[in-house]
Amino acid sequence: MTNRREERRKVAIEKQIDENLKRVYEQDVTQKIPDKFLELLDKLREQE
């Protein structure tokens, strides 16, 4: 019975990690690109 409990606990922890990673990724994707980064990209394009 202890093995089943440990396995359920492991699965629950992995699920929580997955959910947290998804949450962080979604927040990152919705953030606006900083102006300084866009300016740097423009400068790099001009050099090409």
UniProtKB/TrEMBL annotation:
Residues 15-48 form the Anti-sigma factor NepR domain. It holds the Pfam family NepR. InterPro entries: NepR. This is Transcriptional regulator. It comes from Paracoccus aestuariivivens.
